[in-house]
Design brief:
The chain has 134 residues and is an alpha+beta fold. The chain has one domain. It is 34% helix and 18% strand. The chain has three helices and four strands. A four-stranded mixed beta sheet has the order 1-2-4-3. Helix 1 packs across helix 3. The longest helix has 30 residues. It starts with a helix and ends with a helix.
Length: 134
Amino acid sequence: MISGTARRNSWLKRSRAIATAVAATAVASTLAACGARGSGSAPDWQRVSFRASDGVRLEGRLYGGWREIAVIFSHMGRSGDSQADWYDTAATLGRAGYGALTYNRRGVCPGSADGCSQGSDDLAESWRDVVSAY
């Protein structure tokens, strides 16, 4: 049996992850509305990998390095979507002095330099990915 405190902590973690994803969407929408795009130069990013709470290994890119203020970009669940959807926006934030993390959600493997995340493509479990990215 899970204690009330454990349930509350789990709920708080999921809530923070959702709030972060909502904030990332708002920032991305604002940048897009302002016409912000990547400069076309080589982006300043490094490949990262991390594990979701259930052990699934996820692949991503960190723009701007480890910063106190960062945005996590999680792509949608439509077929063909990947972290590449956020590269221009993440690079713009990285150049502006923020950390920006893109990653491929569980089970997404676009190939090439975009990295392959392990696990099954299961949207119902992808909240674990966002919480772990945080």
